[in-house]
Amino acid sequence: MKPDRQEKVDRILRAAAVVLAEKGYENATIKDIAAAAHVNWGLLHYYFKNKEDLVVKTLRYASDAAFTPTLGLFSEGRSKEEIVDNAIELLKRTYRDNPGFYKLLFEMWCASGRSKKIKAELVDCVNRVIESLRTELEKISSSAVPTAPTATAAAAIPGASFADIPHEESTGIAGLLLAMSNGLAFQLILDPQKLEDEKTWQPFRVAALVLLGGDVNEANSSNNNKKKKNDKP
After folding, report:
1. Which of 38, 68, 153, 163 could potentially form a cystine with 148 if both were Cys, beta carbons 3.0 to 4.6 Å apart?
2. 1-48 to CATH, choices 1.10.357.10, 1.10.10.60, 3.40.50.720, 3.90.470.10
3. Do 180 and 204 contact (CB within 8 A), yes or no?
4. Do domains 1-48 and 56-231 have the same CATH topology?
5. Listed residue (104, 123, 6) closest to 55, CA to CA
6. Could you give the 3-state DSSP secondary structure of residue 114?
7. In sequence order, which residues have a C-beta less than 8 Å from that of residue 132 and are 6 or more positions away?
8. 56-231 maps to which CATH number?
């Protein structure tokens, strides 16, 4: 696709994501999206087969834009506790930078009950994110220090004591992490003030650590220390 054509298509998809998040699938029109993208509405009929085709491509575009740049950061922690903290920071960042994405996601979930094509794309988006998370989990498992037989190995990664995540379990764990993240995002849509409330994130932190086999006691201790520090005048 030519650069100038691709730029127009991307602009339309970005505008469509905003309009669909605000108005929903049924209420958003081609003309609404064209106006938001500052293009002639006839151009949308040229680039997309119909409204449903535009919505399907918008969902893929928005999903890739929200998740692709951040998933690799998930596994940068040196312990499972740090990895979970990274995941929480990524969720916070995604919501701060692009709160409309989660609104779009839930609008598409509603629309998927009435459109087979949207449902198929939504399922594919979810599966691609789960697969990416699974890959990151297996990177963590393969690069981690195993439950160490010696003090030297145990000290190689502070707080680690990693147990390998079995391949057959990693997809299920990834799916549960995504489900928890989406559930939390739904709460934030209803009450955005929860974003900065540590009480919102601590149950997620504990549940994620249980899934990854991390040290929940260490997580609670770390969180209590953080809370005391934040509470100091």
Report:
1. 153
2. 1.10.10.60
3. yes
4. no
5. 104
6. coil
7. 67, 68, 71
8. 1.10.357
**Whether the model pTM is above 0.70:** yes
Q: What is the Cα–Cα distance from 156 to 217, expressed in whole angstroms? A: 20
Three-state secondary-structure class, residue 154: helix
Residue 187 contacts residue 200 (beta carbons within 8 Å): yes
Distance between CA atoms of residues 42 and 56, nearest Å: 19
Domain spans in the chain, listed from the N-terminal domain onward: 1-48, 56-231
Q: Tens-of-pLDDT digits for all 233 residues of the chain?
A: 666 889 999 999 999 999 999 999 999 999 999 999 999 999 999 999 999 999 999 999 999 988 876 676 666 767 788 888 888 988 898 889 888 999 999 999 999 999 999 999 999 999 999 998 888 888 776 655 444 333 333 333 333 344 566 777 889 999 999 999 999 999 999 999 999 999 999 999 999 998 887 666 655 555 555 555 555 55
